[in-house]
Amino acid sequence: MGTITFVEYDGTSHDVDLVEGASLMELATSNGIPGIDGDCGGEASCGTCHVIVDDAWIATTGTRSHVESQMVEMSPECAPNSRLGCQVKACPALDGLTVRLPEFQM
Ligand code: FES
After folding, report:
1. Residue 42 CA, closest ligand 1 atom number
2. Domains of the chain as residue ranges with CATH
3. Which positions fall inside the 2Fe-2S ferredoxin-type domain (predicted)?
4. Which of 23, 36, 49 to mutate to test the pocket of ligand 1 (most atoms within 8 A of CB)?
5. What angle do CA 89, 94, 95 make, to 5 degrees?
6. Over the stretch 75-105, which tens digit does the pLDDT of each residue have?
7. Where are the alpha helices (DSSP H) in 1-106?
8. Residues 6+ apart with CB under 8 A from 88
């Protein structure tokens, strides 16, 4: 068990329990985090799970795949550390991870 923190665009912070094997999108939607919809169910095809990984964590989360990049780069708020939350699986190494949410989701 551990914690992952989602920070809304306005700075509102939400800590959720880390569930190993669940994606960040699944953790966000199951905990009612505003702004994460996960409309495609985790198929990397809707872009409604956009998160921006804190700089300190990018080496641990890894970088996005080509398919993930194609989707997330459609967002006008795409940042170098942008990820699709559905493509980041929670694991013990991510205990303490902080991700920010963009102002608008696709
Ligand atoms: S849930 Fe659709 S792209 Fe992540």
Report:
1. 1
2. 3-100 (3.10.20.30)
3. 2-105
4. 49
5. 130
6. 999 999 999 999 999 999 999 999 999 998 7
7. 24-30, 58-61, 66-72
8. 23, 24, 51, 53, 61, 62, 94
